[in-house]
Amino acid sequence: MSAEKTFAIKGHLIRNTDPGSLEVLRDSWAICEGGVVAGVYPVLPEKYAGIDVTDYGDRLIIPGLTDIHLHAPQYAFRGLGMDLELLEWLETYAFPEESKYADLDYAEKAYEIFADDLVASVSTRFCVYGTVHVEATVRLMQMMEDRGLHALVGKVNMDRNSPGVLRESSAEQSLADTRAWAEECGKFRNVRPILTPRFIPTCSDELMHGLGRIRKETGMALQSHLSENPAEVAWVIRLCPESKGYVDAYDSFGVLDGGRVVMAHCVYNDFQELETLKTKGVYLAHCPTSNSNLSSGIAPVRMWLDLGLNCGIGSDIAGGHSLSLFHTMAHAIQTSKLRRRILDGSLAPLTVPEVFYMATRGGGSLFGKVGDLSEGYAFDAVVLDDSRMLSPFPLSQMQRLERMIYQVGPDGNYVHAKYIGGKLVYSADKIR
Amino acid sequence: MSAEKTFAIKGHLIRNTDPGSLEVLRDSWAICEGGVVAGVYPVLPEKYAGIDVTDYGDRLIIPGLTDIHLHAPQYAFRGLGMDLELLEWLETYAFPEESKYADLDYAEKAYEIFADDLVASVSTRFCVYGTVHVEATVRLMQMMEDRGLHALVGKVNMDRNSPGVLRESSAEQSLADTRAWAEECGKFRNVRPILTPRFIPTCSDELMHGLGRIRKETGMALQSHLSENPAEVAWVIRLCPESKGYVDAYDSFGVLDGGRVVMAHCVYNDFQELETLKTKGVYLAHCPTSNSNLSSGIAPVRMWLDLGLNCGIGSDIAGGHSLSLFHTMAHAIQTSKLRRRILDGSLAPLTVPEVFYMATRGGGSLFGKVGDLSEGYAFDAVVLDDSRMLSPFPLSQMQRLERMIYQVGPDGNYVHAKYIGGKLVYSADKIR
Q1: Rounded to 5 degrees, what angle do the CA atoms B285, B290, B294 make?
Q2: What is the pLDDT of residue A85?
Q3: Quick one: angle between helices B205-218 and B171-184, nearest 10?
């Protein structure tokens, strides 16, 4: 099916009206024109007579989800070594595994598994960390592009406090590689490069300043980590004695301005820092599964929503073990409840409509008009099949959606069909 | 395959040596004689030449898991209404749904789905709450017995502080029904009755004392809820002003002595109460998924282990939304990490071997010698198929187990075959 051809799909369409509520458009048609939602109708309008139509019957159709933070090379060891302390885990799994991506054959083998699983997942758009290796990262981008995925993918920058085999030889080299890589990425249409300093402890001031300059020249998006755990925050304070804090440190390198910046975790940012992040329009990636697995803590997401910050949900593979954003959304609700019970009774728990919003329009807006089944939005749609979940009583569409969010685990695949930018990228019918 | 016939299965056997560690017996044979493990060998001994053998090849074989706390009638609304406050959730879902089980046709329809899903799950033994209805509970027990499951199943007792339609008319009636029900259960072999006062707030003193007497006379097992959340604990203190606390209240009714008592949750028991529970040999059912969903808190399980308490893991369907004990085990580890980070840095997080122990020998010992692939234990074995989880590098058997524990979500089914007491109750080969 070409992205250019006009077509329609039918089913029970579900979307947010606002962060606090969901609406169901039963037995409705969504029209795709030029890769974009041209309209949503209870009856196919006369003017669309004769276009290709697919009736998905009683199935639910939701906007595509955006996984706003994950590490591609870590997918291979998701769910492994989770009993280790963070530092041990990095040394035993993360760094040795990432170093393997200097070998293109290995990268190809591992990234094929990753890219195929992305296609089958409930998510349609992704904000991905690769490794420091340019070639492997380009290979990954090619695989994702070939599969019809839309994404921002980053070649990682790190020139200090990293194991030798992953440490780039100098800031200069790292920046030169980054420029060459960004240029090579010109050949990709839907998978775009994003500047990816791993985080301040692994990036020299010179490197950070250089990335700030590239950003200013090219307008490239940027992603990094921020305030994930107390020890890391303290480390950054020591490394940047001139700064008022972690956010201010990033800001001093000129990387926060200009839009399309994603900061993962943000568990420990105070009100003042959140205000700064809001002013700059920075996206906060909430990664609850990872924050549990790595003993990081629980981010005050209710505060982010109240402040109107840009925020989305990230699987954070492989700090998070689950590629399923549904599972991650359920975990976000669960940990928000624990946070209220144990830490701060003033912040109400997250709700299903809220995490749905974060996973769709919240993170999706990083890619433009994405994450809604409304006119003018990219035609990103996921057709869900919950026919295997039996029920002794009839469920409303809303109940069916909630059940899926809770029941679809890390390994779960209830995707019947998936469209991204109007292109059918996955169909269970074709596979089975 | 008869439970009486001697046979052997082969694969990579995994079991705990103690709560702190797991061992893998690669390519080994487990012999079943009369429903019990007769031995485990790297090579099939001469004396067993000619017995039926099944070689599961590269698959993992683990002891059966015991789900030590779940509510059968709540399975129908698992993962629904999780945004509601506890009281609203009970009124919107739990009580209306449980009241439907007065209708045997409905009970049959709902329990069929439940029983079939139990068979396909990673668990082999279960501690189940039914409803107050004798007939529906007997029907459930029959279905479980017919499917080869082993379980303790309870007709619930509640004669106060309950919605009218579920409140038994008097303590006397409740006790008479319980006696008649227990007698009728004489026809079941592997699914046995367990006394099930819902919890103190819904059971009058007279009812509790009466159940204490039945227990003394019959030696029946007993299950209830204990210290799930702060409001409930405070309520019990008000209801039992003579008691020193929640544990003491149960004790005053004479229900804690005599063994085979399961108390679910135990999030808020202090050291003194834990000592009492230890003295009485009470089983503590850790239900982390439920404790998150219902904003209950995080139980200090590390303390239970250090004190050497009897404890197991419960899915607590439908406070917990996941029937997968693997998923529940992973959640137990995750919340123990959050507890350390947020609440009490002195208690180390749980580990994979520890939650595995709790889910196997921990809870299994309630059923006798259950939860180990060692000589003399019931032949409860689960053959796992993780061939769909691709990896770019070879994984050890231990890594494969850990990955499955993390990756098998609420809906996940990676069971290839399942034996309970030597009987093959599930085989993916036969179904596909």
Answers
A1: 130
A2: 85
A3: 30
Position A405, amino acid: I
Tens of pLDDT, residues A48-77: 999 999 999 999 999 999 999 999 999 999
CA dihedral sign of residues A19, A22, A23, A27: positive
User: Contact at 8 Å (CB) between A106 and A78?
Assistant: no
List CB contacts of A217: < 8 A, sequence separation 6 or more.
Answer: none
Query: Residue A180 corresponds to which tokens in the numbers above?
Result: 């060459």
Is 60 exceeded by the pLDDT of residue B430? yes
User: Which pLDDT score, from 0 to 100, does residue A83 have?
Assistant: 94
Cα separation, B138 vs B91, in Å, equals: 25
Q: Percent of chain A, pLDDT > 70?
A: 99
Residue A396, token pair as written in the block: 């409303």
Amino acid, single-letter form, for residue B330: A
Phi-psi region of B288 (alpha: psi -120 to 50; beta: other; left: phi over 0): alpha
Residues of B in contact with A290 (CB under 8 A): none
Percent of chain B with pLDDT over 70: 99
Question: Chain A: nearest CA to B407, how far in angstroms?
Answer: 5
**pLDDT tens digits, one per residue of A252-263:** 999 999 999 999
Record: contact A296-B79, CB cut-off 8 A? no
Write the single-letter amino acid at A185: C
Interface residue of A100, A317, A341 to substitute, partner B, most B CBs within 10 Å: A341
Minimum CA–CA partner of B113 in chain A: A390
Q: Which helix (H) or strand (E) holds A302?
A: helix A301-307
Q: What is the pLDDT of residues A299-352, one digit of tens each?
A: 999 999 999 999 999 999 999 999 999 999 999 999 999 999 999 999 999 999
Q: Looking at the partner chain, which of B82, B324, B339 has a beta carbon nearest the beta carbon of A333?
A: B82
Q: Evaluate whether B109 touches A392 at the Cβ level (below 8 Å).
A: yes
Residues of chain B in contact with residue A388, where contact means CB-CB under 8 angstroms, are 411
Sign of the torsion angle spanned by Cα atoms A173, A174, A179, A183: positive
Q: Which helix or strand (DSSP H or E) is residue A67 part of?
A: strand A65-71
Q: What is the mean pLDDT of chain B?
A: 96
| ipTM of this predicted structure | 0.97
SS (H, E, C) B118-177: HHHCCEEEEEEECCCCHHHHHHHHHHHHHCCCEEEEECEECCCCCCHHHCCCCHHHHHHH
- Whether residue B407 and residue A80 make contact (CB cut-off 8 A), yes or no, is no
- Rounded Cα distance between A233 and A226, Å, is 8
Q: What is the pLDDT of residue A430?
A: 67
B21, B22, B80: which to substitute to probe chain A, counting the most A Cβ within 10 Å?
A: B80
pLDDT in tens, A406-426: 999 998 889 999 999 999 999
